[in-house]
Amino acid sequence: MYLRGDHAETDLRVLRQLVRENPLGLFTTAISSPSYPLIQSSHIPFILDVEDESSETELGQLRAHMARANPQSKAIIDEIKERQAAGDNSRTLQQDVLVMFTSAVQHYVTPKFYTATKPVTGKVVGTWNYAAVQIYGKATFYIDPNAEETTAFLNSQIDALSSFNERVTMGYTGEGSRPKPWQVSDAPTPYLNIMKKAIIGVEIKIERMEGKFKMSQEMGDGDTDGVVKGFNDLGTDMGSKMASTVEARREIKKQKKAAKESE
Q1: Quick check: is 235 in a domain?
Q2: Do residues 66 and 25 lie in contact, with contact meaning Cβ atoms separated by under 8 Å?
Q3: Which one, 7, 136, 251, 261, has the greatest CB density within 10 A?
Q4: Segment Disordered: which positions (predicted)?
Q5: Residue 238's pLDDT band (boundaries 50, 70, 90)?
Q6: Whole-prediction pTM value?
Q7: Within-domain flag for 115
Q8: pLDDT bracket for residue 177 (50, 70, 90)
Q9: Element (H, E) at 199
């Protein structure tokens, strides 16, 4: 990830929030295989686990599951079984894996928004504002449908993922007039057992987490004012969210600058 100073976000608490607000990650592996592409990616929802939410250093881990029929899963399974046949019983890939999370708040920025620079020099071009987190780590897989450890991992992961998305993503808390959340136990056990045999578990120990909020911080106040006004003038929900985010990130940049100058 290209991280220029204006856009880089190093606070892990902020990065965790972006991941949890946008849990559908793009999971990428690089596995040498005679049957499948070297690089494969899949969009799958993740759960991010950390022991201390206030920690500024704890990276934590990601948990997810994938369809066993997915070609990426097949390449993973082949790699692990080949190693096991050679006497290596580890279910952790030697290569790093990458998971990318992108905020839903993202939009094209027209040069027309740069009301300070465009009229004077015309030296402006269109760009795209967005926020994203990239996570690197070592992935361990649960591929044996008959193993107790696979069953235990999938039961825990599916329960956690369902509970998070029912309560947080959907807002089904059961409090007041809010509907009660759907629970995994609401589905028939035989059906769940069949479904679990059709998936594999993914557990990633995070080794590096990088994030950026590219929200016009590189521009001067005059142009940023134009960006905020331009997005608000779109009259759309996304435009309003973009304007608010641009303002918020500009304020954060100013606070960081003031703190550095006072050191």
Answers
A1: no
A2: no
A3: 7
A4: 239-263
A5: very high
A6: 0.93
A7: no
A8: very high
A9: strand 199-214
Alpha-carbon torsion 70, 76, 77, 78, what sign? positive
Place of tokens 């952790």: 92
| DSSP line for 90-110 | --B-SS-EEEEEE-S--EEE-
Q: Which of 19-23, 82-86, 193-197 has the lowest mean pLDDT?
A: 82-86
- Of 36 and 254, the structure prediction assigns the larger pLDDT to 36
Strand 61-67, strand 47-49: pairing: antiparallel
Distance CA 9, CA 215 (A): 12
Task: Specify which residues 166 forms β-bridges with.
Answer: none
Segment (H or E) for 233: helix 221-233
Q: Is residue 134 one of the residues assigned to a domain?
A: yes
Q: Which residues pair with 200 in a beta bridge?
A: 66
Continuous H helices in 22-135: 71-85
